[in-house]
Amino acid sequence: FWSFPVNQDMINQQAWRPLRPRTDARSVIEQMDEKMFETPLAKIPGKSDLPLMDGAEHVQVAALCTRRKGSKTQVLLIRSLDTGRWILPKGWPMAGRTLAGAALQEAWEEAGVKGTVTEEPVGDYPYDKIAGNGQAKPCRVSVFRVTVDKLADTFPEAAKRKRKWMAPARA
Fold first, then answer.
1. What is the pTM for the complete model shown?
2. For each of the chain's 171 residues, which pLDDT tens digit applies?
């Protein structure tokens, strides 16, 4: 069992160690050591194209974009392209970026967010991403908080996305 896709470059770099099989994320995290984080997952080539061992999950990142409006905190959500649901901006790790950096980039591309991101995730969740061929890819999404300084009117996916500020309880 691996907590992320494994390829020959990772084996050569020895930036990981095998994890004992467990059933929950917390027990996997408890087995990790600092050596595993010396090579960011964002540098794994091919993102979601790598083969997975049974029980493994693809890694994705999401941005929990927040702002203060008076004394209240608000969360920014965007419309998904396929179902039209309100979601967090999310995507795949990116070469040359940390996972937090990839989450901030997704927030820019999908929602026009300019802000600062926390380097540690605030949480994570599992979901099945449905590929173009209809197959489900098991994913684990690490969520990074982004404090929004500004929203741009023009951004890469502006023509495809709607965005909306909501109270955390509603989001």
1. 0.68
2. 233 343 334 333 333 333 333 333 333 334 434 333 333 333 333 444 444 555 678 899 999 999 999 999 999 999 999 889 999 999 999 999 999 999 999 999 999 999 999 999 999 999 888 888 888 889 999 999 999 999 999 999 999 999 999 999 888
Q: Which residues, in sequence order, are CB contacts of 41 under 8 Å at separation 6+?
A: 4, 59, 93, 99
Length of the chain equals 171
Tokens of 115: 């802000």
Q: What three-state secondary structure class fits 47?
A: helix
Beta strands in the chain (DSSP E): 58-69, 72-79, 86-87, 90-91, 113-117, 123-130, 136-151, 163-166
* 77 within 8 A of 87, measured Cβ to Cβ: yes
Q: Which two tokens stand for residue 81?
A: 């392209």
106 sits in which H/E element = helix 99-111
Asked if residue 115 lies in contact with residue 65, where contact means CB atoms within 8 angstroms, the answer is yes
